[in-house]
């Protein structure tokens, strides 16, 4: 699965739980940025956990 952010083609490795919107699957860099917002919870995707440390 690709990152949900526009024009981002990196692999989505984190699921963001966003209180005011639908959950989003995003890449690690976007998860870092978007996960800073109040109330957002970043959940590493169990299906691609190894991707977090790889490459
Ligand atoms: Zn991204």
Task: Describe the 3D structure.
- With 55 residues, the protein is of the alpha+beta class.
- The protein has one domain.
- The protein is built from 1 helix and 3 strands.
- The chain has a 3-stranded antiparallel beta sheet.
- A hairpin with a 6-residue loop joins strand 1 and strand 2 (24-26).
- Bound molecules: zinc ion (ZN).
- The site of zinc ion (ZN) has 8 residues, from helix 1.
Descriptors:
55 residues, alpha+beta, three-stranded antiparallel sheet, 13% helix, globular, binds zinc ion
Order of strands across the widest beta sheet? 2-1-3
Please estimate the helix content. 10-25%
**Chain-averaged pLDDT:** 88
Q: What general form does the structure show?
A: globular
Number of strands: 3
Structural class: alpha+beta
Strand content: 15-25%
Which ligands does the model contain, each kind named once?
zinc ion
Provide the fold topology.
Layout: E1 14-17, E2 24-26, H1 28-34, E3 41-44
Antiparallel strand pairs: 1-2, 1-3
The structure holds zinc ion.
Short summary of the structure?
13% of the residues lie in helices and 20% in strands.
């Amino acid at each position: 699965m690709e990152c949900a952010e526009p024009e981002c083609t990196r692999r989505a490795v984190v699921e963001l739980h966003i209180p005011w919107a639908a959950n989003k699957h995003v890449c690690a860099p976007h998860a870092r940025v978007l996960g800073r917002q109040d109330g957002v919870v970043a959940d590493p995707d169990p299906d691609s956990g190894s991707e977090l440390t790889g490459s």
